């Protein structure tokens, strides 16, 4: 029963964790599109150190978040497949840090009226476009954000349950069946050793008596 429950939780954790990976891939693709737009407008890549323009921090941030989401997804798949305690602990730490980061940004946006001043000016203009898109489609973006946070919380809960169930048990060892075979061994008939001196008398008989029997 425990093995079936563990297998189900592993499959669900992989499925839920894949949603985080899909979000990370979407961020990476959007970052690649922003890099392409920047290169087309500025004539150079945003990663050039000799550029005369300030670095587009929004592109860096979105790309870094996408890579982090994909890294968390990979660690989650490894943790779900192996059910190893260290891997599960590491995955839970990553998810908790990610949720704390998202919570800090959300609190700053909702409680601080001048939250836009906390971010530097983005020379690419993508930050303003992203902000206007969120304001225009606020309801949709709100539900997408809540769904993503709920998926992260669910993956954290599943990882905790999987950690509580423990790793897989190994059933290939013969030692596990030893206690079950002990009663059978106790009831087994005694084993008799073959007497090497068969035909020549008992071992306990003196040699002289055996010799007399032979001479007769």
From TrEMBL:
Pfam families named among the record's database cross-references: Tetraspanin
Residues covered by region (Disordered): 195-216
Statement: the UniProt record of this protein carries the keyword Transit peptide: no
GO cellular component: membrane
Main location: membrane
Domain of life: Eukaryota
Residue ranges crossing the lipid bilayer per the database entry: 12-37, 57-76, 88-111, 143-162
Database matches in InterPro entries: Tetraspanin/Peripherin
Keyword Transmembrane found: yes
Membrane topology field: Multi-pass membrane protein
Coiled coil residues, start to end: none
Localization in the cell: Membrane
Keywords of the record: Membrane, Transmembrane, Transmembrane helix
UniProt-recorded name of the protein: Tetraspanin-19
């Amino acid at each position: 029963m425990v093995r079936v429950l563990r297998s189900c939780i592993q499959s669900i954790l992989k499925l839920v964790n894949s949603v985080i990976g899909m979000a990370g891939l979407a961020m990476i693709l959007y970052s690649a599109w922003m890099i392409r737009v920047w290169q087309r407008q500025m004539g150079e890549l945003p990663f050039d150190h000799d550029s005369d323009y300030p670095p587009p921090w929004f592109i860096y941030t979105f790309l870094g978040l996408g890579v982090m989401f994909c890294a968390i997804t990979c660690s989650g798949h490894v943790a779900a497949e192996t059910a190893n305690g260290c891997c599960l602990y590491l995955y839970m730490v990553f998810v908790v840090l990610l949720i704390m980061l998202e919570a800090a940004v959300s609190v700053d946006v909702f409680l601080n009226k001048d939250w836009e001043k906390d971010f530097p000016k983005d020379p690419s203009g993508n930050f303003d476009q992203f902000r206007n898109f969120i304001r225009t489609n606020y309801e949709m973006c709100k539900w997408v954000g809540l769904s993503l946070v709920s998926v992260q919380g669910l993956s954290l809960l599943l990882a905790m349950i999987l950690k509580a169930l423990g790793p897989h048990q190994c059933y290939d060892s013969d030692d596990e069946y030893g206690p079950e075979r002990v009663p059978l061994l106790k009831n087994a008939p005694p084993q008799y050793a073959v007497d090497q001196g068969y035909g020549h008398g008992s071992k306990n008989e003196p040699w002289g008596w055996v010799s007399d029997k032979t001479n007769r």
